[in-house]
Amino acid sequence: MTHDSTPGRSLFEYAPAPESRAVVDLKPSYGLFIGGEFVEPTDGTTFKTVSPATEEVLAEVSAAGPSDVDLAVAAARRAYDRVWGPMPGRERAKYLYRIARIVQERARELAVLESLDNGKPIRESRDVDIPLVAAYFFSYAGWADKLEHAGFGSNPRPLGVAGQVIPWNFPLLMLAWKIAPALAAGNTVVLKPAETTPLTALLFAEICQQADLPPGVVNIITGAGETGRALVEHPGVDKIAFTGSTEVGKQIARSVAGSGKKVTLELGGKAANIVLDDAPIDQAVEGIVNGIFFNQGHVCCAGSRLLVQESIYDTLLDSLKRRLGTLRIGDPLDKNTDIGAINSAEQLERIRTLSEVGEAEGAARWSPPCDLPDRGFWFPPTLFTGVSQAHRIAREEIFGPVLSVLTFRTPAEAVDKANNSPYGLSAGVWTEKGSRILWMAARLRAGVVWANTFNRFDPTSPFGGYKESGYGREGGRHGLEAYLDV
Amino acid sequence: MSEPTRPRRRIPASDRIDVRKTYKLFIGGGFPRSESGRSYEVTDARGRFLANAALASRKDARDAVVAARKAFADWSGATAYNRGQVLYRVAELMEGRRSQFVDEVAAGEGITRPRAETAVDAAVDRWIWYAGWADKIAQVVGSTNPVAGPYFDFSLPEPTGVVAVLAPQRSSLLGLVSVLAPVIVSGNTVIITASAERPLPAITLSEVLATSDLPGGVVNVLTGRVAETAPWLASHMDVNAIDLTGAAGDAEHARQLEVAAADNLKRVLRAPDTEPDWTLPPGTKRLTSHLELKTVWHPIGV
User: Fold this and answer.
1) Of A16, A239, A325, B86, whose CB neighbour count within 10 A is largest?
2) B8-12: long-range contacts at Cβ-Cβ below 8 A with a sequence spacing of 24 or more?
3) A323: helix, strand or coil
């Protein structure tokens, strides 16, 4: 082993520590999960889902056509009318607890499959995604028989059939955020996972069978944007829940106008992560790294705009660059991996394009030295300095491991810059001074403010955006409102 | 109402010639004429001339949004106790103008004086009801969240921002107050389009607000054709939410406004099929519809 004294290079190399794939039993092809059974699409087609780390084809999946969407909505309606709607909350609760338990029992299998299909490091799918999935089901299970105490009246009613469309960045976790409160409130669901990450949702369908969940309560239809559109616009759907881009969120808001469908949207963000001059630098650096490089930056609430007080700029940047040099990029199934693969060729192209725009507009680009695998979709952790508020990399959501660094002189200027965005999903504040935290937290127009931490999630903690980051909240008591007729 | 018609002769109650009024808009705490220079005749329920009102234009709507945005920081930053007292003061001042409101409601809505008195009293009481909510709503809808980790985590409601409100077309005072008070009590600022055919109670309320402690720009009142100004408010990129109650009964108009509102993902309070019965207890829906929930995390013990 050669000693490499380059700043930012780690002293020690790590031997590979891969998690075994053997725990996952992949089928060559999957149908649609409608009415409690896997069925072949009636008017749909098929597509392949690949591992973004290797471009290996993992399985063939069905793309639901309009008739399939009809069948799924009809199955959900039947289940709502005959079984799930009339069922007492205490019985619904027990199904949700069962699901939570099975998720815990099959956690390793789910984590490996999630990392395979999504490209995220196994450390994250194992320690964050899947434990949170179980926690959301467990937490909402307990609401199912307590709805009259939730603050929405003495007998809040469910809405009926919920159509849910989720993204590829936290495939199973977003499924849990959608299905757990919907079912607890007494609705039935038709859920469409993202085109590039359908596999854990299909495994979840098996878990529903394993839990003996009544047929039709949960229906999973795979497909691309057209399938999602058919579901959103279906007249038999009473409620739409969507997580994804602001652009698609606006299309949905337009398409449901006049329909009376209840809608919740959890959309894009361009969060400011603000570091004040009295911040604990080492903690802040960890928070910045977690804020933008967690899940390859494929996070709607990622801290993608770093706002640093001028007086500590040099110190902080040196520390940050040193820390980035220690990040390990590569095989998502390796337990030492910090940064996995970009989810798709399409997303990689978007990250590359915006990064090129950043350079063309005059910002300085920096990445630590790192070797990227030959196959698959990869992008190194990247910093842009000298970024102004007018630059596209300071305004647009990149959804990748790219951090734009800006500076400020006073806390008031930091707040102005942070709020200078059509988005308003999240924000971060780093300072040792409590009164400053509360002062800033009150002024940041964002749905979640992380102070001296970042990217924390919990089933009891409401999450959702201001402004063009969408409307409605997911999590906690507040998350029930989206699925109740109130 | 759109084009001036010859006023019908009104039989004077005495020999004195009455002073006919031409009202203006209420924007940023002042009373400007419509930028368009236009006005229209307001008649009572039987078609008799009551007054001239300003016919607001697209430019007026935009000016009102600017005024509302300018007022937002201070009003949303005021203490809940202060906002509650300001709303209570509005009720006090309305009480002093009771007979004028009764006259206007009776004439505009074509109802008897006793019924108009009931409506005015209910409107005053509604201000008081909402005034009391100022320092309570955060406790009712906020929370501390028992997260599974060493963090203090709390959620609290904040005002959505600048809100456009289409006031009811029929209930010219009670309906107006019922949609206005719940929006401003939490710290939002408002552009409200008055009932097109029955705008006088809204105009008189503007005069009440102007002499109350409500900061200028918190409430901006547009009179005229709702169909002319509402699309500009619905599509305005600096308006955060829109209440379509005033479009009740016109599903297509409401749908178009909801489509326009999607341009910047405004929060939309949809139009009901028919105008609600404003005498019923209001509940908290109109309060909570114009709030955003903010969640704050901080580590414990680090």
Assistant:
1) A239
2) B8/B47, B8/B48, B8/B49, B10/B48, B10/B49
3) helix
pLDDT at B1 over 70: no
For chain B, what is the largest distance between any 2 Cα atoms, rounded to a whole number of angstroms?
83
Whether B293 sits inside 8 A of A283 (CB atoms) is no
Report phi then psi at B40, rounded to 5: -145, 160
Nearest CA to A377 out of A351, A355, A399, A397 is that of A351
Buried/exposed code over A323-349 (b: 16+ C-beta within 10 A; e: otherwise) = bbbebebbbbbbeebbbbbbbbeebbe
- A169 three-class SS: coil
**DSSP code for B261:** H
Please name which of A112, A227, A443, A122 lies closest in space to residue B77, comparing C-alpha atoms.
A443
Q: Do B294 and A441 touch (CB under 8 A)?
A: yes
B199: nearest Cα among B104, B301, B131? B104
For chain A, which residues lie within 8 Å of any Cβ of chain B, measuring from their own Cβ?
135, 151, 246, 249-250, 253-254, 257-258, 260, 265, 267, 283, 422, 437, 441, 446-453, 456, 458, 460-464, 466-468, 470-471, 473, 476-478, 486
Question: Residue A139: which H helix or E strand, with range?
Answer: helix A130-141
Residues of A labelled as active-site residues: 266, 300
Closest residue on chain A to B283 (Cα): A153
Note the pLDDT of residue A11: 58
**DSSP reduced 3-state for B92:** helix
CA distance A193 to A216: 17
- CB contact (8 A) between residue B295 and residue A265: no
pLDDT, position B2:
47
Q: Decide: B123 and B177 in contact? Cβ < 8 Å.
A: yes
The residue behind tokens 């007979």 is B99
DSSP result, A220-282: E----HHHHHHHHT-TT--EEEEES-HHHHHHHHHHTTTT--EEEEE-----EEEE-TTS-HH
From B165, B164, B167, B188, select the one nearest B236 (Cα to Cα): B164
Q: Please, is B100 exposed, middle or buried when counting C-beta atoms within 10 Å of its C-beta (0-12, 13-18, 19+)?
A: middle
What is the rounded CA–CA span in Å between residue B113 and residue A385? 70
pLDDT band at A7 (very low <50, low <70, confident <90, very high): very low
> Taking CA B33 as the corner, what is the angle to CA B242 and CA B68, rounded to the nearest 5 degrees?
35
Distance from CA of B241 to the nearest CA of A (A): 9
Q: DSSP labels for A193-208?
A: --TT--HHHHHHHHHH
A484 secondary structure, DSSP code = B
Which DSSP state fits A399?
Answer: -
Residue A366 pairs in a beta bridge with: A383
Provide CB contacts within 8 A for B184, sequence distance 6+.
B75, B83, B87, B190, B214, B218, B219
DSSP B247: G
pLDDT, averaged across chain A: 96
What ipTM was reported for this prediction? 0.96
Exposed, middle or buried: residue B4 (CB in 10 Å: 0-12, 13-18, 19+)?
A: exposed
The whole-number pLDDT of residue A8 equals 45
Q: Which residues of B are less than 8 Å from A261 in CB distance?
A: none
Average of per-residue pLDDT across B10-22: 77
A258 closest CB neighbour out of B143, B151, B254: B254
Mean pLDDT estimate for chain B: 95
Residue among A257, A451, A486 minimizing CB distance to B297: A451
Residue A223's region, left for phi above 0, alpha for psi from -120 to 50, else beta, is left
pLDDT-based confidence at residue B31 (cuts at 50, 70, 90): very high
- What is the amino acid identity at position B98? R
Contact criterion met (CB below 8 Å) for B40 and B22: no
d(CA A305, CA A406): 7
